[in-house]
Design a protein that fits this description.
The complex is a heterotrimer of chains A (172), B (248) and C (374). Chain A is mainly alpha-helical. Chain A folds into two domains: 2-81, Orthogonal Bundle (Arc Repressor Mutant, subunit A); 93-169. Chain A is 67% helix and 6% strand. Chain A has seven helices and three strands; from the N terminus they run αβααββαααα. The longest helix of chain B is centred in the C-terminal third of the chain and has 16 residues, at 178-193. The chains are: A mainly alpha (172), B alpha/beta (248), C alpha+beta (374). Chains A and B meet through α6 and α7 of A and α7, β9, β10 and α8 of B.
C-alpha cells in the first residue's frame, strides 16, 4: 500500500522525498518509522511506470521534487474506488488445526481452544490499554478499535467452537 | 486476614421454573484469593450470574459448599447471611439500583448505615469514597439527575463503604456506552490494583473481561476454561505490530 | 430510618396529603364522638346533680322530666303532710311539667317546657341560679299569668323582663330571666305558679310529681323504700334511678355516634393500608436492593411501619384542632389531655393494623427476585 500512499500525498501537491517521509510518519501519530530506502525504491518504481515524475531542484543540491502524473492520478482514483476485498474465504488457520487435530485422533480440543483464547484475550488487553493512550487521533483509534472488534468476534467464534465440538470429544 | 476470600466446592444450583428443573450451576470449584480481579464470562444462561449470587450470599446452593473466608454459607440462615452482605460483600448491578429518594451522598451512606457504622465516620467515609470515584461535585444530586456512568460510580462508592472483603459486579457495563464503560472498568481495575480490593465481575463482553487478571469462561453452568492475563505490554511494540499488519 | 421515611413521604406528596386528610377525617370523627360522649354524660350528671338526696314520686316509670305522669293534687298534698317519714317538708314540693315543644333528644335546646310550682316554693326547683335583674319571686299565693324564664327559653321567646309572651294561647308576663344553669331543664323552662299552669293547660287538680327532700341525705334510700311501700301505685325515684333511666335514653344516640367514630377510624385504617400497599408494590426493587445491601427483614418492615405512623400522626394535630374549635363553637367541653392520649393511641393502633399486611409483604421481598427484573 506504500505506492498508493505516496501517490495520495503527491496528488495534493508535489513534494520532496524528505517531505514524503515526514508526512507518512505523521499520518500515524508519529508512531511509524519508515526509512528513505523504502521510499526511494517505491518512488523509482512509480517513475518507471510513469505514474510519477521527478524534477531536479534549482538549488542543485540534488533534492528532487516529485509530482504526480495524470496516469498516476487515474491509477490512484481507480484504487480508491475499488471495494476492499476481505480475506475471501474467511479461512481461519485455527479451524484447520482443529480439524487436523481431530483427524489425527489427538483429543484435547478444549485445551487448544483455551490456549488460543488466552492469546486473543491478552491481545485484547494490550489493545485496550493502547486505545486509552492513543485515543486522540481518530484514524489511530479507528485502527485500534477495528482490531479490538475483530478479536471480540474471534473470541465469540472460539466459544462456538467449544460448544459445537464438545460432543466430538467423547470417545466413541 | 484471609488470603482465600471465596472457595466453592462442587457447588450446584438448580431452579424450578414452571415445573421444569433448570440446572444453572453444575458442580463448580472456584477459588478467589485476596486482591484478585476475576471475570466470569459467558452467554446468558451460562450460570455466571447464579454463581455470583451464590458467592455473594444472596442465594443458597442446592448442594456443595461455598466457603466465604472459611465459613460455609450454605449453613447460614437469613439473618447472618444478610449481616454478611452488609459488612463483607459489596454489590454493583447492571441497573445501578440506587435508592431514588436519596441523593448520591446519602446512597453511599445508607450501605454503611446498614453495616452499623456511626454517623461521623460514615459521613467522612462517604465523602472520601465519592472523591475516589471522582464524583465529589455531584454528591448532592438526586440519582435521577445523574448519568448512567455517574450512577454506577455512586454504586461503586456505595459498595465499598464497609470495606468489604469482596466486590461483586453483575454486568456493570451492561447499560453503558463504550466510552463510559471504559471509565468504569478502569475504575474497577484501579481499586483492585491500587487499593487491593478483591473483585469478581460477571460479563458477556470479552472486552470488559480483559480488564481482569483471571478470566473464567462459562457455559451451561460449568467453567470451560481459565485464562490468566498480564498487564498491558509496552505500547510502542503493540503499536508497531498493528501498523506492520496494515503496511504489508 | 425516620429521616428516610420522611423523604419517601415527601417524594409522593399528593399521596401523602390525601392519606393524611383521610386520617384527619377519621380522627376528627373519633374526637367528636369522644367529646359528645363526654358532653352528654356531663350534662346529664349536672342535670341530675340537683337530685342528690332528692326523691321524686311520680306515676309510672321514672322518666325525667315526668311529662306523662299524672297525680292527683290531693294525693300529692297527703304525701307532703307526712311528718313521719323523716322528710324535710320545707324543702319539698309538688310540681307539674308540661312539654310545649318536642326536641329530638332530651335536653336539646329545641325542647321547651313549662314547669308549674306552688308560689313560694320555686326556690326548691331553681336552686342556686341567679337572675340578671334580681330575681322576682312569685308573690305569696300568686296565681296570675307570670313566668320566670330560663336562659334558653328566654332566647327562644326573644323576651325581656316585663314583656308579655304567649304560652298556649295565653299572654304571660315575664317577671324574671334566669342566668344559664348547669341544669338544662331549668334553662329550657318557663316556670310559672302551679295554679296558673293548671288553669292554662286545663289540668286543674293535677300534678306531675312530688319532689321530696329527706332530712338526712344518708337516709335517702330508706325513705324511698318506705314511700314505695306506702304508695305502691306510684313510682319512687332517687338520683340513681334517674341516672339509670337517662343512660337508657341516651344509649341509642350514643351508639350511633360511637359507630360514626369507629367507622371513621376504620376508614382511616383502610386508607393507610391502601396507600402503604401501593407504596410497597412500587418499591419492590428498592426493598430488594436494601436487602442485598444487608438490611435485615425487620429494617424493611420498620420502614413501612414508620411511614404509616408518620402518615397517621400528621393528621392528628389538625384534627384535634378542629375538634377543639367545634367544641368551642357548640359550647361543650373541649377535649382534655386524657382524650388526646386516647385518640393518639387509637390512631397509632389503626395505623399499625393498616400497615401490617403491606409491611409483611415488604419483608417477604427476596433480594434476588427484586433484582432479576430488567
Amino acid at each position: 500500500m506504500l505506492p498508493y500512499t505516496l501517490l495520495g500525498l503527491l496528488a495534493s501537491r508535489s513534494r520532496h522525498g524528505y517531505d514524503l517521509k515526514n508526512a507518512i510518519e505523521q499520518a500515524f501519530g508519529g508512531q511509524r518509522e519508515i526509512n528513505f530506502g523504502q521510499i526511494y525504491t517505491t518512488l523509482s518504481r512509480l517513475e518507471r511506470d510513469s505514474l510519477v515524475t521527478a524534477s531536479e531542484a534549482e538549488d542543485g543540491r540534488g533534492k528532487k521534487t516529485y509530482s504526480i502524473t495524470p496516469q498516476g492520478q487515474n491509477k490512484l482514483e481507480t484504487w480508491l474506488d475499488l471495494i476492499v476485498e476481505k480475506n475471501e474465504t474467511y479461512k481461519d488457520e485455527f479451524l484447520v488445526k482443529l480439524i487436523v487435530r481431530h483427524m489425527a485422533g489427538y483429543g484435547d480440543t478444549l485445551a487448544a481452544i483455551t490456549r488460543q483464547r488466552q492469546a486473543y484475550l491478552q491481545q485484547l488487553r494490550d489493545l485496550t490499554a493502547l486505545s486509552t493512550q492513543k485515543g486522540d487521533d481518530p484514524y489511530v483509534s479507528l485502527l485500534i478499535e477495528g482490531a479490538i472488534l475483530h478479536l471480540q468476534a474471534d473470541l465469540h467464534w472460539l466459544e462456538m467452537c467449544d460448544e459445537r465440538l464438545e460432543h466430538l470429544e467423547r470417545p466413541i | 486476614m484471609y488470603t482465600t476470600i471465596v472457595e466453592t466446592k462442587n457447588v450446584c444450583k438448580t431452579f424450578g421454573l414452571n415445573g421444569v428443573a433448570v440446572e444453572a450451576v453444575r458442580g463448580i470449584d472456584l477459588t478467589v484469593n485476596a486482591g484478585e480481579f476475576v471475570a466470569l464470562v459467558g452467554p446468558s444462561g451460562s450460570g455466571k450470574s447464579s454463581l455470583l449470587y451464590l458467592v455473594g450470599a444472596m442465594d443458597s446452593p442446592t448442594s456443595g459448599e461455598v466457603l466465604f473466608e472459611g465459613h460455609d454459607l450454605a449453613k447460614l440462615r437469613d439473618g447472618p447471611r444478610t449481616d454478611l452482605r452488609a459488612k463483607k460483600i459489596g454489590f454493583i448491578f447492571q441497573t445501578f439500583n440506587l435508592l431514588p429518594t436519596l441523593n448520591a451522598f446519602e446512597n453511599v451512606e445508607i450501605a454503611m448505615r446498614l453495616g452499623g457504622m456511626g454517623r461521623s465516620e460514615r459521613q467522612s467515609r462517604a465523602a472520601e469514597l465519592l472523591e475516589r470515584v471522582g464524583l465529589s461535585e455531584r454528591a448532592k444530586h438526586q440519582s435521577r439527575h445523574l448519568s448512567g456512568g455517574e450512577r454506577q460510580r455512586v454504586a461503586i462508592a456505595r459498595a465499598l463503604g464497609n470495606r468489604p472483603s469482596l466486590l461483586l459486579a453483575d454486568e456493570p457495563t451492561g447499560n453503558l456506552d463504550s466510552k463510559t464503560s471504559t471509565g468504569i472498568l478502569e475504575l474497577l481495575r484501579a481499586i483492585c490494583s491500587e487499593d487491593g480490593q478483591t473483585v469478581i465481575m460477571v460479563t458477556h463482553d470479552f472486552r470488559a473481561a480483559s480488564y481482569a487478571d483471571r478470566v473464567m469462561v462459562m457455559r451451561d453452568g460449568r467453567i470451560r476454561g481459565e485464562t490468566k492475563l498480564q498487564a498491558g505490554q509496552d505500547t510502542t511494540q503493540a503499536m508497531e505490530k498493528l501498523l506492520k499488519l496494515e503496511f504489508q | 430510618m425516620i429521616d428516610i421515611a420522611i423523604k419517601n413521604l415527601g417524594t409522593r406528596k399528593v399521596r401523602t396529603v390525601l392519606c393524611a386528610l383521610a386520617v384527619l377525617a377519621g380522627v376528627f370523627l373519633m374526637g367528636v364522638t369522644l367529646v359528645m360522649n363526654d358532653w352528654m354524660y356531663g350534662t346529664m350528671t349536672a342535670e341530675l346533680a340537683k337530685y342528690l338526696g332528692k326523691i321524686y314520686v311520680q306515676q309510672g316509670e321514672s322518666t325525667y322530666p315526668p311529662f306523662d305522669s299524672t297525680m292527683s293534687q290531693n294525693t300529692a298534698a297527703a304525701i307532703l303532710e307526712r311528718t313521719d317519714l323523716g322528710l324535710n317538708l320545707a324543702e319539698s314540693t309538688s310540681l307539674i311539667f308540661v312539654r310545649t315543644e318536642r326536641g329530638m333528644m332530651p335536653f336539646m335546646s329545641a325542647e321547651k317546657m313549662v314547669i308549674g310550682v306552688p308560689a313560694g316554693r320555686e326556690a326548691i326547683l331553681i336552686g342556686n341560679v341567679t337572675a340578671d335583674s334580681g330575681l322576682d319571686h312569685f308573690a305569696a299565693g300568686e296565681h296570675g299569668n307570670v313566668a320566670i324564664l330560663g336562659e334558653t327559653s328566654a332566647e327562644g321567646f326573644n323576651a325581656e323582663v316585663g314583656q308579655d309572651i304567649v304560652i298556649n294561647g295565653t299572654e304571660v308576663r315575664v317577671i324574671g330571666i334566669l342566668e344559664k344553669s348547669s341544669m338544662d331543664s331549668v334553662n329550657i323552662a318557663a316556670i310559672m305558679p302551679m295554679e296558673t299552669v293548671q288553669r292554662i293547660f286545663a289540668k286543674q287538680g293535677q300534678v306531675s310529681s312530688v319532689l321530696l327532700t329527706p332530712q338526712d341525705v344518708r337516709e335517702t334510700a330508706e325513705v324511698a323504700v318506705r314511700l314505695e311501700q306506702d304508695y305502691p301505685a306510684f313510682g319512687v325515684a332517687t338520683q340513681d334511678d334517674m341516672l339509670a333511666e337517662a343512660e337508657q335514653v341516651m344509649k341509642m344516640p350514643l351508639m350511633y355516634m360511637s359507630s360514626m367514630g369507629v367507622t371513621g377510624m376504620i376508614v382511616a385504617m383502610i386508607v393507610i393500608m391502601s396507600t402503604m400497599f401501593m407504596t410497597v408494590t412500587e418499591r419492590t426493587r428498592e426493598f430488594g436492593t436494601l436487602r442485598a445491601l444487608g438490611a435485615r427483614q425487620r429494617i424493611v418492615v420498620s420502614t413501612v411501619l414508620i411511614e404509616a405512623l408518620i402518615l397517621a400522626l400528621i393528621g392528628v394535630p389538625p384534627a384535634m384542632g378542629l375538634v377543639y374549635l367545634m367544641s368551642k363553637a357548640m359550647e361543650t367541653t373541649p377535649p382534655d389531655a386524657v382524650k388526646l392520649v386516647l385518640i393518639v393511641l387509637f390512631t397509632v393502633v389503626a395505623a399499625m393494623v393498616g400497615a401490617a399486611y403491606p409491611a409483611w409483604r415488604a419483608a417477604r421481598v427476596e433480594p434476588l427476585e427484586a433484582l432479576r427484573y430488567e
